[in-house]
Amino acid sequence: MAPDMNPPAAAPDFLIAAGWEGAEIRPLAGDASFRRYFRVVHHDRSAILMDAPPPHEDPRPFIKIARWLTERGFAAPEIFHENLEHGLVLIQDFGDARLRETVDAAPESELRLYAEAVDLLIRLRDHAAADVRPYDLPEYHREAALLPEWYCPAVGLDVDAAGYTEAWNRVLAPVLDGHMPVTVLRDYHAENIMLIEGSESLGLLDFQDALAGHPAYDLVSLLQDARRDVAAELETAMLDRYKRITGTGDAFDVAYHVLGAQRNAKIIGIFTRLWKRDGKPRYPGMCPRVWAYLERDLAHPALKPVADWFDANVPAELRGDPLAITGE
Prior knowledge:
By secondary structure, this protein is an alpha+beta fold.
């Protein structure tokens, strides 16, 4: 289903109120949610119009976290104007240079840019978490449950749901006990990290779902990227860099793989849901990459209860692209 990229009806009046009367509105790519984005061009200046229509979307968390980040020296978009009734927000335009395309076009930059992205997360550790909900055990369970809820039925599997929950409880509970929470951006990957012309800072996008949780989660988002292949060698080098600079050891390594497995199980469920419920068939094709990350994590000894569940419930030949598996 192609997204509707016509500007929202309230956009012209909104832009007049923002001081951008007569600006040209150009559609940009949407995302997996109801949010849509437009580039607004007026003479020699440009901005991004975010359309986050209520009741499906609420732009207030984005605005809150953007301001929290900029107050602490991180490059989040400046908020120029907002209309919460219509879900419209005019924000700073970081341009089109995403980390993903930059590295794909210049592979020699990959190590340097990923190191910068890792160092940004290390800086984030220096700040007490924002005033947001905790990323707690019930939330992790709810997310992990998306795999048996959506993926398993899609490929014709009837699985042991209670055993799945118990397996996750055994591996998650020790990881979440006693760590110092940080602001977890939750979608920190190569398509949400911008290279801003004239700036030494990496630009941050798509952080409206931020929670206060374990610092390993965003590192997993970056190094087990659902939308881009990250080589195992690069992942190991960047994980080692993070641990060396922060002084973390084996406990962090366990947390990284446990939360990696949890995140990848969640993503497989979400990508299947985007296909089955929302009519977006491009997402199942990314599931094989995510399965590869998940199996990499499940090989860690700390994940044995979850790995055993997968071995008993999801045969190897049914781990992949659910659309291709079913032939739909």
